[in-house]
Specification:
The protein contains 22 helices and two strands. By secondary structure, it is mostly helical. It has a domain of 214 residues. Strands 1-2 form a two-stranded antiparallel ribbon. The longest helix is centred in the middle third of the chain and has 33 residues. InterPro entries: CPA3_Na-H_Antiporter_D, ND/Mrp_TM, Proton_antipo_N.
């Protein structure tokens, strides 16, 4: 039987080997895509087999390189990282399946490059998920930015290049100006960059200095899209829909909020975090980000942009849960990483399916579309309920624990804000599938009275069906995620 450390090594290397395999088989599309699907399956198996080992309390560590004394490229499996790795590895398979139907159906160019950089992105995600220290995390965090840039600019148009420049500018700018500075300061103050339960700072560290560091970390992790460093996310919607799914659910934004959660829990520690003066006004900032992004989402007529601003709002939930510095808040934050991943990836899958099958991109064009695309719009309805946070979907659990977290922290105004933002998400999401099914407008290309069912290619349809089903299953079987979270707090 393979050792746990070997499984960890495999989880880090499988996506890189997959990227090489995709390039080597690029001229044979069936073989190329088979390599991607096989690699995703092997990665999920490797990560899944780490679950019982972690729950048994065993420490799994791997050292790759010692750059300087005490500064290492090293990996360790801890519960929160395993959650992120499980989400990313499972959704890699589904997104690959979806991309096969989308890329072929939409006649996209440079498909080999797409699948190769997608695999490298997953390798970067595994590095972030299993990073033993801030140095390792920073290396893979930056690698994720660089290897997703060709995906954002995939179309090669002036608009795509402009979106890519904004993407790189904000993410690299915040990393160098804030995140890297915070990491260096942490090293100088503590002599370590390793993640530790309870945090790394001593009780005599000045509160003002801790406040400054927390601000640098929150603003430095630009992938978390906290306002005002959120504009890269809507700008990146010029990318193909599978890339949008990667950005919003599998890799980039989830990497951002995961890093913030890990820093709050394992660099500051919940007790220290509660005592830092800056925590309170950063909670205000997260609350404002939730509310303002939801209001902006309501005003977007383009479907992908509406979903993008929805993501900015929902990421604020995760940041807020981490900054509440309570057990329930952290539980809700970690659970929302999972629930939002399945809900939002389904919504983007549906948006891409609508583009491929019906050639529609605007919200106003979707009236009556449920007759033409009943499976797609049915999945859109389920995913919308998951983002809103109501049964029969798993989003119910994360929103519930976030509300409990506000009570636990005595922040009743934040509880009210979360309730208002949920009402806003109902307003900008739910009318789309309801009008699609119940509007009197017939959605046909020719404008005839008869509406033929015409869904997206079957791989895309299967993928969005799987993730929509996942939204429901997460309501019924949340315990696997919940037990991991409790083991990590």
């Amino acid at each position: 039987m393979m050792s746990a450390s070997s499984l960890l090594q495999l989880a880090l290397l499988i996506p890189l080997l997959a990227a090489a395999g995709v390039v080597l088989t690029g001229r044979h599309e069936n073989l190329r895509e088979g390599v991607s699907l096989a690699a995703g399956t092997l990665l999920l198996a490797a990560v899944g087999n780490l679950y019982p080992v972690v729950m048994a309390g065993q420490v799994i560590e791997v050292l790759w390189l010692e750059v300087l004394p005490g500064l290492t490229l090293a990996f360790r499996v801890e519960p929160l990282g395993l959650i992120f790795a499980l989400v990313a590895s499972s959704l890699w398979i589904v997104t690959t399946l979806y991309a096969i139907g989308y890329m072929r159906g939409h006649g996209e160019q440079n498909q080999t490059r797409f699948f190769a950089f997608f695999a490298i992105s997953i390798a970067a995600v595994m590095g972030i998920a299993f990073a033993e220290n801030l140095f390792t995390l920073f290396v893979f965090y930056e690698l994720l930015t660089l290897c997703t840039y060709p995906l954002v600019t995939h179309a090669g148009t002036d608009k795509a290049r402009e979106g890519g420049r904004l993407y790189l500018g904000i993410l690299l700018g915040t990393s160098v100006a804030f995140f890297l500075v915070a990491i260096i300061a942490t090293w100088l103050l503590t002599g370590t960059l390793s993640f530790q339960p309870g945090g790394v700072f001593t009780d005599d560290t000045p509160a003002g200095l801790l406040s400054l560091l927390l601000v640098l970390y929150v603003f430095g992790v630009g992938k978390a899209a906290i306002m005002p460093f959120h504009r890269w996310l809507p700008a990146a919607m010029v990318a193909p829909t599978p890339v949008s799914a990667l950005l919003h659910a599998v890799a980039v934004v989830k990497a951002g909020v995961f890093v913030l959660l890990k820093v709050c829990l394992l660099i500051f520690g919940l007790e220290t975090l509660r005592e830092i003066p800056a925590t309170q006004w950063l909670l205000y900032l997260a609350g404002a980000s939730i509310l303002l992004a939801a209001i902006v989402a309501m005003r977007q007529e383009n479907l992908k942009k509406r979903l993008a601003y929805s993501t900015v709002s929902q990421l604020g939930y995760i940041t807020l849960g981490a900054l509440l510095a309570t057990s329930a808040g952290v539980t809700g934050s970690a659970m929302h990483i999972v629930m939002h991943a399945f809900g939002k990836i389904t919504l983007f899958f549906c948006a891409g399916a609508i583009l491929v099958a019906a050639h529609k991109t605007e919200v106003g064009q979707l009236r009556g579309l449920g007759r033409q695309m009943p499976i797609t719009m049915g999945a859109f309805l389920v995913a919308s309920l998951c983002i809103i946070g109501i049964p029969p979907t798993g989003g119910t659990w994360s929103k519930w624990y976030l509300l409990l977290g506000t009570l636990e922290a005595g922040e009743l105004w934040l509880m009210g804000l979360l309730m208002v933002s949920s009402l806003l998400s109902i307003a900008y999401l739910l009318p789309i599938p309801l009008r699609a099914f119940f509007s009197g407008v017939e959605a046909t290309d020719a404008g005839s009275t008869g509406v033929a069912v015409r869904e997206a290619p079957w791989p895309s349809l299967l993928a969005l069906g799987i993730t929509a089903t996942g939204c429901v299953l997460l309501l019924l079987f949340p315990d696997i995620i919940y037990q991991l979270i409790k083991a990590g707090i």
